[in-house]
Specification:
The structure holds two protein chains of two kinds. By secondary structure, chain A is α+β, with helices and mostly antiparallel strands. Chain A folds into two domains: about 230 residues, Rossmann fold (3-Layer(aba) Sandwich); about 130 residues, Nucleic acid-binding proteins (OB fold (Dihydrolipoamide Acetyltransferase, E2P), Beta Barrel), CATH 2.40.50. Chain A is about 25% helix and about 35% strand. Chain A has nine helices and 21 strands. In chain A, strands 13-12-11-14-19-20-21 form a seven-stranded antiparallel β-sheet. In chain B, the strands form two sheets. In chain B, strands 1-2 form a two-stranded antiparallel ribbon. Chain B has a two-stranded antiparallel ribbon with strand order 3-4. The radius of gyration of chain B is 24 Å and the shape is globular. The chains are: A alpha+beta, B mainly alpha.
């Protein structure tokens, strides 16, 4: 596996180094050739700054960026051989959509027939064949965005940067194009970095997701890893829809029962033997922990902790039930329509293997189910 | 579909007529005056019926002003040429200096950029007389007084802030991603400026150039103090029509017609750029 892009201790300050706004903090990340990476995070988390440093539009304050085997952090964009799709209005207004897409190919002196074939192919894939001869000002925002995406994808570059490439598309089209874009990128063996705040998009497109918050890379791993083994409370609660339920708990053991005493006078009891000895020891050593559980892993049961229904929404394919629980709200998801009314008491059960345990001060994950976090 | 009632159309017509009268009447009256002699101009009551004469224009073009006190030499055509040369050169230099500066202020955030831009704008706040006295002394010592170069330099006080601030706005309106896209497609900063930013801001640059040309053309006080007869533009040259034997209204009118003709023609020609400039918003969708 060759590494196509490698960021080492990359920092970005807006303003003087050390004093200005620290937008990106010490990011180290390696992207294998042929992978699609998603930079996922909320607005202002530093994902776009990171992308722009890779593209060369922002100076790297500290650290190195290596692309296709050479250091590029001081090179101008023109010498980095990257392609980029922009979120906003970025088409050259004076030429047609077709010429916009073909722009870089023409400059690279590719045969005309080959340019036409490639432009046709990518336009077909993105459903913009019918607007190829129109001018940018006469097409919609979604069409402009797809044209910008086509202009980036059609190129042969060492790296393709996609900045929120589908933000303005309608949901149906987005779902359709996601699959096609992934196929196109994989088929041509391109390496791509996708910036998005949409976790569905990240999950569907990316081989690996880099979750960012506050300029810090929180976790970098496959979508499954991030879902099953969130590295910290932020990743745990940020990724996943609806978000993970989190409660502060005090752990104790007596007579073979491990009890998590939740604030609000409620407790979760488990047989001591249900836990791996190392997890048990870790929990008992710390006593104060944060426990997290995915809404999918909260079940209604005959026996369990008491909760009271606050809201029950049927979304057409699943029910989201919110219930007051231990002084807070717990959300559970069921696949069938739940016939519950507001105020109805229920009992909930959480299996020990579904518990994520976090450190209450640092937020770092301590264990996932029966395994200690690395 | 927009429908208008006859009353509304009538009222609108009246309003438009009033506005046109208000703005066009002085120009029409001046044009009429320029074809009359002082006697017909000054008769009471005034009338639009007169025998047109070209003597005002011939006097200006030949440079011989006939008055009751005798023949006076005036160099009106020389003044016109001075105006044309000073304004054109000032705007050209203003554009060469101002457009790249405007781009820098629009795109690059550097320390003190706002302060510098504001300082340049503040040249427009100060009354010209404030700087004229010290400037006169400096210019005499530097040998710049009564030279085209010196005047063009001083004219930058008028032209440069105007160009800078108008063009900066146009550059800021171009989505930066268009330039980024061009750069990442294999072009350097300089060619992005020339091939993307300049053409897209073209209408704005034309508008700024036109406006600053008119401001430079209409300038009076700098040239009055810093230029002697042979370098004077028409605005100052027109003073020559105030003669010992009275004001030569016919010649003044002819002089005005000649001196507004270039800016008038330029404005008519550049109108389409101004309209294009307004529709640049379409780029943003």
């Amino acid at each position: 596996m060759t590494i196509q892009l490698s960021l080492k201790s990359v920092d970005k300050f807006y303003g003087p180094v050390g004093k200005g706004v620290h937008a990106v903090k010490d990011i180290t990340m390696a992207v294998p050739k042929g992978d699609i990476i998603a930079l996922l995070g909320s607005s202002g988390c530093g994902k776009t700054s990171t992308l722009r440093m890779i593209a060369g539009f922002e100076a790297v304050s500290r650290g190195t960026i290596e692309l296709a085997g050479k250091q590029v952090q001081t090179l101008p964009p023109v010498r980095r051989n990257v392609a980029m799709a922009f979120e906003g209005y970025s088409l050259y207004p004076t030429v047609s959509v077709r010429d916009n897409i073909a722009f870089a190919l023409k400059a690279s002196r590719l045969a005309e027939a080959e340019v036409a074939r490639r432009v046709g192919h990518v336009a077909d894939m993105l459903e913009i064949t019918d607007i190829l001869d129109r001018f940018p000002f006469s097409i919609s925002g979604g069409q402009q965005q797809r044209a910008s995406l086509a202009r980036a994808l059609v190129r042969d570059a060492d790296l393709h940067l996609l900045d929120e490439p589908m933000g303005q598309l309608e949901p149906q089209l987005r779902t359709l194009l996601r699959g096609r874009i992934k196929h196109y990128i994989k088929e041509r063996g391109l390496t791509a970095i996708l910036v998005t705040h949409d976790q569905t998009e990240a999950n569907a497109l990316a081989d690996r997701i880099a979750v960012m918050e506050g300029g810090v890379l929180q976790q970098y791993g496959s979508p499954a890893e991030i879902k099953e083994r969130p590295a910290n409370l932020f990743t745990g609660t940020f990724v996943g829809e609806p978000p993970m339920n989190v409660f502060a708990a005090t752990a104790s053991v007596s007579g073979g029962t491990l009890t998590f005493d939740l604030t609000g006078g409620l407790d979760l009891r488990y047989a001591e033997s249900a836990f791996d000895p190392r997890v048990r020891k870790m929990v008992l050593d710390r006593k104060q922990v944060m426990i997290g559980v995915r809404p999918y892993a909260v079940h209604r049961a005959e026996q369990g902790a008491a909760a009271r229904v606050v809201a029950n929404q049927w979304l057409g394919d699943q029910s989201h039930i919110a219930a007051s629980f231990a002084g807070k709200t717990i959300v559970l998801v069921e696949h069938d329509r739940a016939h519950l009314t507001e105020g109805e008491p229920i009992k909930v059960e959480i299996k020990p293997q579904d518990l994520h345990i976090f450190d209450p001060t640092s937020g770092l994950a301590l264990s996932h189910g029966n395994e200690l976090a690395a | 579909m927009e429908t208008t009632s006859p009353v509304e159309r009538l009222l609108r017509g009246i309003a438009i007529t009033l506005v046109c009268l208000f703005f066009m009447f002085p120009i029409v009256w001046i044009v009429l005056m320029s074809f009359q002699t002082n006697e017909t101009i000054l008769r009471v009551p005034p009338s639009v019926i007169f025998a047109p004469t070209l003597e005002n224009y011939t006097a200006l073009i030949t440079g011989k002003l006939e008055t009751q006190a005798g023949t006076l030499d005036i160099d009106f055509m020389g003044n016109l040429w001075n105006s044309l040369f000073l304004s054109t050169a000032s705007v050209a230099i203003g554009l060469i200096l101002g457009v790249p500066a405007a781009y820098a202020f629009a795109r690059l955030k550097f320390r003190g950029s706002e302060d510098i831009a504001f300082t340049l704008l503040s040249f427009r706040f100060a009354p010209p007389l404030l700087v004229l006295l010290p400037l006169t002394i400096y210019f005499q010592q530097l040998g710049l007084a009564n030279t085209y170069g010196g005047l063009i330099w001083v004219y930058q006080l008028i032209v440069l802030p105007l160009i800078l601030w108008i063009v900066r706005g146009y550059f800021e309106d171009i989505p930066a991603d268009i330039e980024y896209a061009y750069r990442i497609a294999g072009h350097d900063f300089w060619s992005t400026f020339r091939r993307i930013a300049l053409p897209l801001a073209g209408p704005g640059i034309a508008a700024a150039g036109l406006l600053s040309f008119i401001f430079a053309w209409n300038n009076f006080v700098f040239a009055l103090v810093l230029a002697s007869a042979d370098k004077q533009p028409v605005t100052v040259g027109a003073l020559a029509f105030v003669t010992a034997s009275g004001i030569q209204y016919g010649q003044v009118a002819a002089g005005i017609v000649l001196s507004i003709a270039p800016t008038f023609a330029l404005a008519l020609y550049a109108q389409r750029y101004l309209v294009e400039g307004l529709s640049l918003g379409a780029v943003k969708g």
